[in-house]
Design a protein that fits this description.
Strand content of chain B: 35-45%
Oligomer: heterodimer
Strand order of the largest sheet of chain A: 2-1-5-3-4
Number of domains of chain B: 1
Number of strands of chain A: 5
Strand content of chain A: 25-35%
Number of domains of chain A: 1
Shape of chain A: globular
CATH class of chain B: Alpha Beta
Structural class of chain A: alpha+beta
Radius of gyration of chain A: 12 Å
Largest sheet of chain A: 5 strands, mixed
Largest interface: A-B, 20 and 28 residues
Number of helices of chain B: 3
Number of strands of chain B: 9
Distance between the termini of chain B: 37 Å
Largest sheet of chain B: 5 strands, antiparallel
CATH superfamily of chain B: Molybdopterin biosynthesis MoaE subunit
CATH topology of chain B: Aldehyde Oxidoreductase, domain 3
Chain lengths: 81, 138
């Protein structure tokens, strides 16, 4: 299945891209997507405990099952205001 | 009346305060968050705000709805700026209006506290000797 992946702030800096389409096996979870990404970017693994994730603009847990054409966002703790 | 949006241009709190006034309201609380020229003993030159636009507006909208229902607000406006914001400029404006001041004071604090916890916006402070993403410092 195809997933639209968006990264923000320091996570964008670490991975070197802001947005891309990725292909994952059917029924993959958010955690599996993160495993995949962390295996490519070791600095991301260090930040993993504090990472936040959203699917289709809603905060989501790591065990969330992804679906074709979902938009996933991965980002550090927010600091707006 | 509820208005939730983000913008890159400078904010105009006075215009927000005076637009669509409800004559039944006896209190307005206008909160402006401003960029400081110092942070943790460093001189701040400016802050770059990055935002996840679709989700930020959605989360601010949810927070506004929560406050409107809980404190019976008649006006609720939240505007968050993104891009480069200089010291002294406002990065966020929150306006709440209700018949009595108690509800306005409490709801204004609720809204800014929830925004800082939930809305996907990140600031990168620029100093004389480098820059830092603020959400990463803990």
């Amino acid at each position: 299945m195809k997933i639209r992946l968006k990264l923000f702030a320091s996570i964008r800096d670490i991975c070197g891209f802001d947005e891309k389409e990725i292909t994952l096996p059917e029924t993959a979870t958010l955690n599996e997507l993160l495993d995949n990404l962390a295996s490519q970017y070791s600095a991301l693994a260090l930040k993993r405990p504090s990472l936040l994730m959203a699917v289709n603009e809603e905060y989501s847990r790591g065990d969330t099952i992804l679906h074709n054409n979902d938009t996933v966002a991965i980002f550090p703790p927010v600091s707006g205001g | 009346m509820k208005k939730i949006y983000i913008q890159q241009d400078a904010l105009d709190p006075g215009m927000i305060l005076e637009s669509e006034v409800n004559p039944g309201d006896g209190s307005d609380i206008l909160f402006c968050g401003r960029v400081r020229n110092n942070s943790r003993d460093k001189n701040v030159l400016y802050i770059d705000y990055q935002v996840y636009p679709e989700m930020a507006v959605k989360e601010m909208d949810k927070i506004a709805d929560e406050a409107i229902v809980k404190w019976n607000l008649n006006r609720c406006v939240i505007v968050h700026r993104y891009g480069r914001v200089m010291p002294g400029e406002s990065s966020i404006v929150i306006l709440v209006s209700s018949p009595h001041r108690e509800e306005s004071y409490i709801s204004s604090k609720y809204i800014i506290d929830e925004i800082k916890k939930r809305v996907p916006v990140w600031k990168k402070e620029r100093y004389d000797d480098g820059s830092e993403w603020i959400g990463d410092r803990n």
